[in-house]
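Q: How would the structure tokens look for this protein?
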Amino acid sequence: MVGSTFADSGADLQLVGIRKTFPGFTAIEELDLTIPAGSFFALLGPSGCGKTTTLRLVAGLEQVSDGRILIGGTDVTTVKAHKRPVNTVFQSYALFPHMTVLENVAFGLRRRGIGDPAGKAHEALKLVELDHLAGRKPGQLSGGQAQRVALARAVVNRPALLLLDEPLGALDLKLRRQMQLELKSVQGEVGLTFLHVTHDQEEAMTMADTVAVMNKGRIEQLGAPQELYELPRTAFVATFLGQSNLFAGEVVSSDDRLTIVQVADTRLSVPTARTHRRSGHIVIGVRPEKLFLHTSPVESDSAVDAIGPGRVLDVSFSGVSTSYLVSVPGFGEVTVFAQNLVSGPVARVGDEAWLSWNIEHGFGLEDEALPDSAIDSIDRSLGQEGAHAASASSDRAE
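A: Here is the predicted structure in token form.
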């Protein structure tokens, strides 16, 4: 029977035509997804995108409105939650305060009548390097230790599928990054299938083999973290998974090597292999860390795109890098991340600046138009330039 024995290894998960509606709205439109056995898979998206609902459907905590859920090839769509070969690690940890760490980890084994629960619990605690705290109560643990105990309690049951519901959200930044690496290490050692739900882009990219970006109940793009970051398919993915500078224009020409796009009064080049559209209106982009900021004019050539002049609106120091916000007529507010190779910023607020990037770092999206937020940014930029021009005209008149 499903869930009656330990899983020897992770199982694959298949979601077929999943749809979930609640009174008044649809949480998941139609979802088809296959997660290979033994993989670390992340569902990434903003609040309300449907990722947590998906996890609850897999766990059996919610019932699907339509579609099927298969774990290891077995249809579990109508199987009760406690009979599915699934365990969940929640953000709240949900440890029993009156039990010791060892008793918490062994609890599920004892309930299921599994032999040597204490021995198996010790093994799970050693896996998360907490066996020396087996006799403590949860109230005597730090947040990171409690999180690892919750992980050990889930792993000890050897579920075919382990669900992680934003389990690191309550930790501070340094500990969260440490736990990201530890979770990835544990997953590799035990060989289970991990499905991790998060809104933290860095967390998803650090831990997962494959990331699915969800938006409004649908998966916008799925793939390896590097693939999604370097070649986003839509404006939503480009702006949610990290930051992107996006520009809308008209395709002037396209061949097997380059697609030329007219943006404002500038022609920009994008490798044709890196764009999803080759004609008509197109949105192209480049990541902030790929840009170079110059304090003197720079020209485009066969390998480099260049725009400007613009005006520096903001300079923000963040330690390893400095972020510059530059208003460029026709392009809006463009963000540049510059590594701090010298002491102090290379430009200050109010300075004139030019921007350039290697054309191999550009990408083209499926979208025909910029999202409203980007259009507003360009309107503000043009408005500021218009104000500057009016001011300059007035000064000359006086």
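Residues 303 and 359 are 6 Å apart (CA to CA).

Residues 242-386 form a domain with the OB fold (Dihydrolipoamide Acetyltransferase, E2P) fold (CATH 2.40.50.140).

Upvote if useful.
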